[in-house]
Structure formats: structure tokens, C-alpha cells
Design a protein that fits this description.
Structural class: alpha+beta
Helix content: 10-25%
Radius of gyration: 29 Å
Number of helices: 4
Strand content: 15-25%
Shape: elongated
Length: about 220
């Protein structure tokens, strides 16, 4: 048969009542489907059943219990990367078996195309000398661009602290710590007003030369 439907995955949102969900793309066996609820892999028979395998349309997954409201149901076709057809020399040409094998290959192409579409990819305008090899991070390390912007390196939180604006503590507010940049809550704004008789200004960005003794409240973009 021809393969006209290119999908290899379908997603739904549960409503707490619906149990049956359509699978309108071809798969060969029940084992070819992987069913997830909020990214948790479900168990065939225990959690759901499948009807009308090996059909391009009209198949469905039926849950034993309806997924709760607003949970995400994902039904993916996952085929092993195998070719199982063995042709015997001088034997009668097995047209149906050959067509099934060709269908399998097409479905594998669709599956791999879907996986590639879900992956992080480089921009077409990425310079050719940029190395996208990802190093193995150690405990407590993170990935970041190298200073030259041409590779990915690991770093630890101590190197990131200068780039992260920490939350203010109530002690900093009441003590009036100056020359520091902190994120503050509305309650801490009230605390600052109650604690200090100092001028306060709401600005779009910190001035190049802040005025001593003035609290600047920077608007979030």
C-alpha cells in the first residue's frame, strides 16, 4: 500500500473523561506504539489497549482509566532500525512482503525526520568555524559559550554568579546595603519605604552613575 500520511506522533490534552484517542497513522504491531501521559511512559494492557493495528487510519488507543484533566497524552510510533525481509534466490517474487518492507523503510524515515525536527539544530547562518561539540559537564557544572563564541565549554556556578542578579534579603533591605544590584519583591519595597527615609525612583535601566542613597527600582522588560 502507499504511505500518504507523514505523521509519526500525535498529542492530545486529557479532560478527565475521554478514554479513546485516535491514531491516524500506520504502525505494524501494538509494540510499535509508545504512549506517554505527561512524559511518563504507560504500560501496554495495564494502562491502555490498542485497536486496529497495521492500518493507516482508524486505529486508536483506549486507556483503562481516562487521563486527568489537562494532562498531555503523547502517542509515538517507534520502530526498530531493522530490515527483516530475507529474499530467497530464484524463489517466487513476494510482492506483498517487499511492499511491507518498503513501507517499513518509509515509516523509519518519517520517524527519524520527526526526531530531527524535535532536536536542537544550528542556525543556517551559523559560521563554519563554530564547534558545537558538547563537553561532558562535571558535578555542578553548566554549559556556556566560550569567550570567543566559537565553542561550548563547561563552567561552574562561581563563574555564573557575576551574571546572575540574586534576590535581595530582608537584612539587606533593612541595613540599606548600597552599590548592589538585587531583585526585590513588592513586600520588600514596602519594607524599604518603612525602614528608610530615602528617595526612590522607578527607572527603565540603572543610570551609569547612580546617586548615593537613592533606591532605584528597575522595571522588568
Amino acid at each position: 500500500m502507499t504511505i500518504l500520511i507523514t505523521a509519526s506522533s500525535v498529542k492530545y490534552v486529557g479532560n478527565g473523561a475521554q478514554q479513546e484517542f485516535a491514531v491516524n497513522y500506520k504502525f505494524f504491531q501494538d509494540e510499535n506504539l509508545k504512549v506517554y501521559v505527561n512524559d511518563v511512559l504507560q504500560t501496554f494492557v495495564t494502562d491502555y489497549t490498542i485497536s486496529n493495528s497495521n492500518e493507516e487510519t482508524g486505529s486508536s488507543v483506549t486507556f483503562v482509566l481516562p487521563p486527568d484533566d489537562q494532562l498531555i497524552i503523547a502517542i509515538d510510533r517507534v520502530l526498530p532500525n531493522q530490515q527483516l525481509l530475507d529474499l530467497i534466490e530464484y524463489d517466487r517474487f513476494p510482492a506483498e512482503s517487499v511492499e511491507s518492507a518498503l513501507d517499513w523503510i518509509v515509516l523509519l524515515v518519517q520517524q527519524n525526520s520527526q526526531n530531527a525536527a524535535n532536536a536542537l539544530t544550528a542556525s543556517p547562518s551559523m559560521p563554519a568555524d563554530v564547534d558545537l561539540t558538547v563537553p561532558i559537564p562535571g558535578n555542578g557544572e553548566y554549559w556556556r559559550w566560550a569567550d570567543d563564541g566559537l565553542s561550548i565549554v563547561t563552567t561552574d556556578i562561581t563563574l555564573l554568579e557575576g551574571q546572575i542578579i540574586p534576590n535581595a534579603t530582608d537584612t539587606e533591605i533593612t541595613n540599606g546595603v548600597e552599590a548592589t544590584v538585587r531583585l526585590i519583591s513588592p513586600a520588600q519595597v514596602k519594607l524599604g519605604v518603612e525602614t528608610h527615609e530615602t528617595p526612590m525612583e522607578t527607572v527603565d535601566a540603572l543610570p551609569g552613575t547612580p546617586t548615593a542613597g537613592v533606591y532605584y527600582f528597575v522595571k522588568q522588560p
